[in-house]
């Protein structure tokens, strides 16, 4: 089959690799019809996530048709499914309490050591996201082996196009959980850092959840415009002092909740961020956390901090004092996708949520490398790239 | 009996079973002198037990105690979850004798015969290599109810003594390399198998699985 493989920083290629096959009874093989490049794939592309090996197949947002099933799969051939990026066994303690992204079994035993050393506990298995998360072949390919296929994939009705449901795989539930973690009430002012796909979906979710005001922060005019269209007020951090603006826009109180949808490669002009850029470049592993640092200072005392943005390591000069002295509550984590797919599919069907506005480019899988480059370099206008195996050039 | 006293005795008993008669005296003495300040299991202490390498690990498995015990009691099930164990054959079920075929370097294998030294139905199984084995190893697995409906706490303790002879040493290097890592992986695979019915693998094809690679090398 053809698949997008990683070979180093800024080096991804579409190559021919072995087709997947049923390995375990609960597996299914999915023939991919649509797959997207995620903002978090850019962290892999930039080489700042450890544990990626040459030849690894990337991609964790995908959907398609079931073409083969193991004896223990509940799927049937020909079924259209969206596959969560988190692999969850359904049988462990964490799956039982719907903390699916903390699944204890989906990362193979012999692969758990690296993340256990880094974080104290191993990560769950994720598709196409380094050997820290199991080393699973990802979805930017013609076919994917999906383990525990009776737990993850959700069947979707034929009248909903791929583009309406594809983002159930990651970014829509991630934006939704980001807003849910901010514990939004009807009088709240909520600020969202980053108007990438997750940030935009967090904005949309916060509005659906009834926030009085949502403020979106970014520096790309087109992305800010998308946030404004959804009903958010916007701040361009290149033109405006963000903290001062947030204080004024929240009546001098500070925003009630903040959502960091930026993560470890934040842009920003603060001195410590510039220093972090250098450290990341020379490989001494500092997460650039300038958005989060700003959010911690901007949120009101006793407010909530939600972090859907991805971090992988350590960071310097973290405003720990603000966290404690202001009595903040922090909630974060990889998304418990399986918990959200069903209710969010209902919200797509009844028209409460629309995700198609986000897609700026549709490319054949063969052009995936091109897609990565542009998604990275032209972030203002390349808001979301959907790859389609078999699509004509 | 206070909790801490019970835990201390439990830790001491555990190591004693794991190490066998020869080492009990020395290890027990060390445990006594070093174990007065906290309630942690002895195997987590920051010191060693003489010539014996001892490691232990606990996992919680969301399955009933009896089911887990039954799986472990049939030693022929264990190669599926154990690193570098190719096969375990039952030599004499009544006497609890089993022969383990363990992968050694250069495509060779080494055999270790073990005997069950203690078995408490649903609670504990302890085994030990018989006299004259190339690898002197002992193991003990315990099963206890976890709080609420969390299932069963399974603790595996492995002890071994670096063996004599070139082949034995080479095999031990593989079989018993970093026993802590081995015990951890073995227990994690046990957990995955019992909770999901499968040994988790990220291999894209069957030939890429751990089991397939084991067969290939055999």
UniProtKB/TrEMBL annotation, chain A:
List the Pfam families.
Answer: ADH_N, ADH_zinc_N
All copies of the Alcohol dehydrogenase-like N-terminal domain together span 25-154
Task: Give GO terms: molecular function aspect only.
Answer: oxidoreductase activity; zinc ion binding
Specify the domain of life of the species encoding this protein. Bacteria
Metal-binding recorded as keyword: yes
The Alcohol dehydrogenase-like C-terminal domain sits at 197-278
Quote the protein name from its UniProt record. Alcohol dehydrogenase
Q: What is the lineage of its organism?
A: Bacteria, Pseudomonadati, Pseudomonadota, Alphaproteobacteria, Sphingomonadales
From TrEMBL, chain B:
Reading the lineage from the top rank, the first entry is: Bacteria
CDD domains referenced in this protein's UniProt entry, alphabetically: SRPBCC_8
Alphabetical list of InterPro entries matching this protein? ORF3, Polyketide_cyclase/dehydratase, START-like_dom_sf
Q: Show the PANTHER family listed in the entry.
A: POLYKETIDE CYCLASE/DEHYDRASE AND LIPID TRANSPORT SUPERFAMILY PROTEIN (PTHR33824), POLYKETIDE CYCLASE_DEHYDRASE AND LIPID TRANSPORT SUPERFAMILY PROTEIN (PTHR33824:SF7)
- Protein name in UniProt: Cyclase
The species this protein belongs to is: Novosphingobium malaysiense
């Amino acid at each position: 089959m053809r698949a997008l493989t990683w070979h180093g920083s800024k080096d991804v290629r579409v190559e021919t690799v072995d087709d997947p096959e049923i390995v375990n009874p609960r597996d299914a093989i999915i023939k991919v019809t649509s797959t997207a490049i995620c903002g978090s794939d850019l962290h892999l592309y930039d080489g700042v996530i450890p544990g990626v090996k040459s030849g690894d197949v990337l991609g964790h947002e995908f959907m398609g048709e079931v073409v083969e099933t193991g004896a223990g799969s509940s799927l049937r051939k020909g079924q259209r499914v969206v596959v969560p990026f988190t692999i969850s066994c359904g049988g462990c303690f964490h799956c039982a309490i719907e903390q699916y992204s903390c699944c204890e079994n989906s990362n193979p035993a012999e692969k758990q050591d690296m993340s256990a050393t880094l974080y104290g506990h191993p990560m769950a298995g994720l598709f196409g996201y380094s050997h820290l998360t199991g080393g699973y072949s990802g979805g930017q390919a013609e076919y994917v082996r999906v383990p525990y296929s009776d737990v993850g994939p959700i069947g979707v009705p034929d009248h909903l196009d791929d583009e309406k449901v594809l983002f159930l795989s990651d970014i829509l539930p991630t934006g939704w959980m980001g807003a849910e973690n901010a514990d939004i009430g009807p009088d709240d002012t909520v600020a969202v850092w980053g108007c990438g796909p997750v940030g935009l979906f967090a904005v949309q979710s916060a509005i659906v959840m009834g926030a009085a005001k949502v403020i979106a922060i970014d520096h790309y005019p087109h992305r800010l415009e998308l946030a404004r269209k959804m009903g958010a007020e916007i701040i361009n951090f290149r033109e405006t002092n963000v903290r001062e603006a947030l204080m004024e826009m929240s009546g001098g109180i500070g925003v009630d909740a903040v959502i960091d949808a930026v993560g470890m490669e934040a842009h920003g002009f603060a001195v410590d961020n510039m220093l972090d850029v250098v450290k990341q470049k020379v490989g001494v592993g500092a997460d650039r956390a300038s958005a989060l640092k700003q959010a911690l200072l901007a949120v009101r005392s006793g407010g909530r901090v939600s972090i859907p943005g991805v971090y992988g390591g350590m960071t310097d000069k973290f405003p720990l004092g603000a966290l404690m002295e202001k009595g903040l509550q922090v909630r974060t984590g990889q998304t418990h996708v399986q918990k959200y797919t069903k209710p969010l599919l209902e919200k797509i069907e009844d028209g409460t949520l629309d995700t198609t506005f986000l897609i700026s480019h549709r490319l054949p899988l063969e052009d995936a490398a091109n897609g990565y480059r542009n998604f990275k370099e032209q972030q203002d206008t390349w808001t979301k790239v959907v790859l389609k195996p078999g699509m004509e050039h | 009996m206070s909790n801490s006293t019970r835990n201390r005795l439990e830790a001491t008993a555990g190591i004693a079973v794991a190490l066998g008669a020869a080492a009990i005296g020395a290890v027990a003495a060390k445990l006594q002198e070093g174990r007065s300040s906290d309630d942690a299991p002895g195997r987590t202490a920051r010191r060693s037990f003489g010539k014996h390498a001892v490691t232990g690990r606990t996992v919680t498995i969301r399955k009933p105690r009896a089911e887990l015990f039954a799986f472990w009691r049939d030693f022929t099930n264990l190669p599926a979850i154990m690193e570098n164990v190719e096969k375990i054959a039952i030599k004499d079920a009544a006497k609890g004798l089993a022969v383990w075929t363990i992968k050694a370097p250069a495509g060779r294998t080494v055999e270790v015969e073990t005997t069950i030294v203690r078995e408490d139905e649903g609670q504990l199984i302890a085994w030990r290599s018989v006299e004259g084995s190339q690898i002197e190893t002992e193991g003990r697995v315990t099963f206890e109810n976890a709080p609420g409906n969390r299932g069963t706490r399974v603790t595996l303790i492995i002890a071994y003594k670096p063996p004599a002879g070139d082949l034995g040493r080479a095999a031990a290097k593989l079989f018993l390399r970093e026993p802590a890592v081995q015990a951890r992986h073995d227990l994690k695979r046990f957990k995955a198998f019992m909770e999901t019915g499968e040994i988790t693998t990220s291999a894209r094809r069957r030939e890429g699985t751990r089991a397939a690679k084991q067969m290939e090398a055999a």
